[in-house]
Structure formats: C-alpha cells, structure tokens
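In the design runs reported in the main text, the only information available to the sequence generator was the tokenized backbone. The following block is the verbatim input for one such run; it is reproduced so that readers can re-run the procedure and compare outputs position by position.
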C-alpha cells in the first residue's frame, strides 16, 4: 500500500522521484504517468503525492513490473566454453566469478550450462525471480544453436517435436529448424522448456546427431545478441520487466 506524505519513515521517497531514478523518465513525465493512472503500487492505483519505499514496493508501470530496489542486480553473461557454471570452483578451474571483476554485488547464476557448452547465463541476487526462472512449473523456454553431425535427417525435427524417449522419460522440443549445412556438419536451432541435465545433447544424440558445439542464445525474452564471450551486461528495465512477465502466475 502506498505511503502518504505523513509517513516520515526512513527510505521512503516520493513516487515520481523513485520512478525517475529507475529510468522511467523525468520527474515531470513520471508525475504525468501517475496522474493518468498508469502506475500501481502494491496492487493499488497510485496517486500524486504517494510515497514509497523503493526497496520493498511492488511497482507496475503500464502493466509491467519496475524494479526500484537498487540493491538488486540482473546480469546477462556469455559463458565461454571450458568455464564451469559455478561462482567459484574448489578444483581451481575457471569459474563465473573470474569474469565479474567489476560487479560489486554478490550474484548467483540462474541455472547452468555444462563446461563444454557456451552462451547465455543470467546472474542475479534476486532469489525470488531466480527460483521462478529455474522452476519447471513456469516453463520458461530456452533456445540453443547447435553444431551437429550431418547431414540432417529429414525426420529429425518431426521426431524431436513429437517426443523422444530418454532414460529418464519422454522429452520434446517446442521449436526446431535447420539453420545451415556446413559440409559434414549442420547447424540447428531448437527451443525447449525442459531443464533436465544435458537434455539438448541427449535429445540430438538420440535422433542420430551428436553435438559438437552448443550455444544457448536465449532464456525467455532475454537474448544473447552480440555479447562477446566472457563479457556481461546489466539487463535493461524492459528486459527485467519481460522476465517478470514470463514467470507471472
């Protein structure tokens, strides 16, 4: 529930100031959004003069979640091949924390990629969002670009979409397409919301196409884009809002 002007509680600020600090727009533009009833705080339509605690308030602008807690960090990273998906490794192998020198906050990886795989990883200190992104009930899709032994069998895509019986049960992909053929190898792209260990490699091997290279290119609405291996970037407000939308309900 929004605080009124008489609150005086520590950490409480005018709503338009909090919105402006989060990058929504100028304070005048944020006042206009509030006036037009396009902002809600903790489930209620906000009003001019409302005060909020940015660390705890649940704020939506035009139906999209806006994170105003400055302690929360959301990163996209391009994990290089050969790097283990742990923050630190007791065996001394190269780990994720080795690439996060400029990140002051303590963050954790959302899910993992095996050492031989590369591509998009999300890192955050938002435990609630991380849990939802990893929980199978939310079914957040992930997209992979794979180099496999070719030529591609004509029925490979149909079989993967229909479902393939693995040692731990049936698994299927949501989308599949041939991207390119390169001599005795083929590049394929597939999307699935499964989270079982090595699921992509196991599926493709089962239909006769062992994987020689695997790159995760998207997690839900977040795309790897041209982020270079070993680099990370902070997600935009729009990307964070899209992640929250992907795990709503």
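Verbatim output:
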């Amino acid at each position: 529930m929004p605080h009124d002007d008489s609150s005086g509680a520590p950490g409480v600020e005018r709503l338009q100031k909090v919105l402006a600090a989060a990058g929504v727009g100028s304070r005048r533009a944020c006042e206009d959004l509030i006036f037009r009833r396009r902002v809600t705080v903790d489930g209620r339509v906000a009003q001019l003069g409302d005060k909020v605690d940015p660390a705890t308030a649940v704020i939506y602008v035009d139906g999209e979640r806006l994170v105003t807690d400055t302690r929360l960090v959301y990163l996209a990273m391009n994990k290089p091949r050969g790097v283990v998906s742990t923050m630190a490794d007791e065996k001394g192998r190269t780990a994720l924390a080795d690439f996060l020198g400029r990140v002051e906050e303590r963050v954790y990886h959302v899910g993992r990629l095996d050492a031989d795989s590369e591509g998009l990883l999300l890192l955050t200190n938002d435990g609630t969002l991380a849990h939802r992104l990893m929980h199978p009930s939310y079914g957040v899709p992930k997209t992979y670009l794979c180099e496999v032994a070719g030529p591609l069998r004509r029925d490979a895509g149909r079989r993967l979409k229909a479902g393939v019986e693995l040692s731990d049960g049936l698994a299927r992909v949501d989308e599949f397409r041939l991207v390119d053929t390169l001599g005795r190898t083929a590049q394929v792209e597939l999307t699935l919301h499964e989270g079982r260990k090595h699921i992509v490699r196991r599926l493709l091997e089962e239909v006769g196409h062992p994987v020689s290279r695997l790159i995760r290119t998207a997690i839900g609405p977040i795309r790897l884009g041209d982020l270079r291996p070993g680099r990370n970037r902070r997600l935009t407000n729009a990307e964070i809002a899209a992640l929250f939308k992907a795990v709503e309900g």
